[in-house]
Design a protein that fits this description.
Layout: E1 2-8, H1 14-30, E2 34-44, E3 53-62, E4 67-73, H2 76-103, E5 109-110, E6 117-118, E7 121-122, H3 127-135, E8 164-165, H4 167-177, E9 181-186, E10 192-198, E11 201-207
Helix pairs in contact: 1-2, 2-4
Length: 219
């Protein structure tokens, strides 16, 4: 398996590269189909008295979905250990889930007759909510540029190409990237959807029931 190491604000020593190679062998044992692991080390120095730290991000690519994990510590070697542990745990959980699914089929099932999904909590967004967001009735709070340093809400924006998949596949992808939610397009309905973790249930899914623009509101 190929390894790539990038340092941001920190130099990458031969010792660190050697440790990464050892860790890569452990990862490859759990993910034999993996072709490449990218390691990004980011050093942060603070000016408010906080202790400097290093964040290690791991991205595993190959035949299958991308798997990611990251960890932060005052020592980059410790951060690497923590990130590898997280990545390996995600790989183990995904493997156990596949084995359990083969032995005990379960999860969401689509009733083609009624169009209902059984075995998972479905909460489609209402037309009123879609209209409120589109017309600005539900505002997005941003920082006041005139007040230096005042940012009540920080909004990070990311854009991805849409991916069509089943609910079960979306849950698996969510587990592999280690997030609490995953955005996708439901292959059965063509509706944008989000699977997420919830209390009292294994998973939930929210779907948009229409792709049409909301009706214009008379001024």
């Amino acid at each position: 398996m190929e390894t790539s190491i990038v340092g941001v604000g920190v130099g990458i020593t031969d010792r660190f590269r050697s440790v990464v190679e050892d860790k890569a062998a452990r990862i490859e044992h759990l993910a034999p189909r993996a072709q490449r692991v990218d390691v990004k080390v980011t050093h942060r120095a603070y000016h408010n008295g906080r202790v400097e730290d290093d964040t290690v991000e791991l991205t595993l690519t190959g035949k299958g979905p991308i798997v990611r994990a990251e960890a932060t510590d005052g020592d980059k070697f410790t951060a690497l250990d923590l990130a590898v542990d997280k990545l390996c745990e995600q790989l183990r959980r995904a493997k156990d889930k596949r084995v359990d699914a083969r032995n005990h089929p379960r999860g969401a099932k689509l009733d083609k007759g009624s169009g209902a999904i059984q075995g998972i909590d479905v909460q489609p967004a209402s037309v009123d909510v879609l209209r409120a967001v589109a017309t600005g009735e539900i505002p997005i709070i941003t920082g006041n540029e005139e007040e230096e340093g005042y940012t009540p809400v920080v909004i990070r924006t990311k854009e991805f190409e849409p991916e069509w998949m089943s609910v079960e596949e979306a849950v698996d992808r969510m587990e592999l990237v280690g997030h609490d939610f995953f955005l996708f397009v439901n292959a059965q309905t063509d509706h944008p959807s989000v699977v997420y973790r919830r209390k009292g249930w294994d998973y939930g899914v929210i779907s948009l029931t229409t792709m049409a623009a909301p009706e214009a509101v008379a001024s």
